[in-house]
Design goal:
CATH architecture of the largest domain: 2-Layer Sandwich
Number of strands: 10
CATH topology of the largest domain: Tetrahydropterin Synthase, Chain A
CATH class of the largest domain: Alpha Beta
Low-confidence stretches: 261-275
Largest sheet: 3 strands, antiparallel
Strand content: 15-25%
Mean pLDDT: 76
Order of helices and strands: HEEEEEEEHHHHEHEE
CATH superfamily of the largest domain: Band 7 domain
Helix content: 40-55%
Distance between the termini: 190 Å
Structural class: alpha+beta
Length: 278
């Protein structure tokens, strides 16, 4: 009976030892997948050197592995600022970023989780970068030169996040809004510009119509002048012809050999008034 109890106890101990060994063996390595990086902490202290993709050994029971996603992450972050002309400007940015694999250990030590990175690092730095970009231009320039605003924002944000092991790949301005007062001012300005353009068009149309009237009047005047000159020339010639005929009738003058009628005509008439008999 006693030997049986000893045998059972030995079997139990051996089973426990085998279970511990199996558990230790199972937990003595870790697999890091592509697009990931791991940070090993032993007794709560992060060790230098990130674990990249592959199989890595680790001390069982006393170590913990934190795995970080190195693929592209995207978050939308709101931001508010004042422009150069002290107008309120609000924006929402879509930020694409990834973690620098060489800085993952520092990220683990200082920021911890990805959620902390977004809330404690990316969000406030986005706000500061937007303030820098917005303060360089008026609200109208921020709207009309949106690409320049985005470029200044990208430069400021990239420099600020780089020291935290965060690489900014791209940003997009999802929304850009301004105060209702400025929106009303923009609307009034557009209405005034449209009215001014309409007034210019009406003035140009009136000027063209007046010029057309002047041209028509000049044309009528030229036509009347030409008609008057033609009538005057023809009238003078008819007087001369009449005087010649009257002189011939009275016998006080020699009958003209040839009398031209309508000399201004393209085909004048020639009348031989003397006797053709030799």
């Amino acid at each position: 009976m006693k030997n049986q109890q000893i045998g059972n106890w030995q079997t139990t101990v051996i089973s426990i030892v085998l279970a511990i060994l199996a558990f230790a063996s199972f937990n003595s390595f870790v697999i890091i997948n592509p697009g990931e990086a791991g940070v090993i902490s032993i007794l709560g202290k992060a060790r230098d050197g990130a674990l990249l993709e592959g199989i890595h050994l680790k001390p069982p029971l006393i170590s913990v592995i934190d795995v970080y996603d190195l693929t592209v992450q995207k978050f939308e972050v709101p931001a508010q600022s004042s422009t150069k002309d002290l107008q309120d400007l609000s924006a929402r940015f879509a930020i694409n970023f990834r973690l620098d694999p060489t800085q993952v250990v520092q990220v683990r030590r200082k920021q911890g989780t990805l959620a902390n990175i977004v809330s404690k690092i990316i969000a406030p730095q986005t706000q500061e970068a937007f303030k820098i970009a917005a303060a360089r231009r008026t609200v109208e320039e921020a709207i009309t030169k949106r690409n320049d605003l985005k470029q200044d924002f990208d430069d400021a944000l990239g420099k600020r996040l780089e020291k935290y092991g965060i690489i900014v790949l791209d940003t997009s301005v999802v929304d850009l809004t301004f105060s209702p007062e400025f929106a009303k001012a923009v609307e009034d300005k557009q209405i005034a510009e449209q009215r001014a353009q309409r007034a210019v068009y009406v003035a140009q149309e009136a000027e063209q119509e007046a010029q057309s009237d002047i041209n028509r009047a000049k044309g009528r005047a030229e036509a009347q002048k030409l008609l008057a000159e033609t009538l005057k020339a023809q009238g003078g010639q008819l007087v001369l012809q009449k005087e010649a005929i009257e002189a011939w009738k009275s016998g006080g003058a020699q009958m003209p050999k040839v009398l031209v009628i309508g000399s201004d005509s393209k085909l004048p008439f020639l009348l031989n008034l003397q006797d053709p008999t030799p």
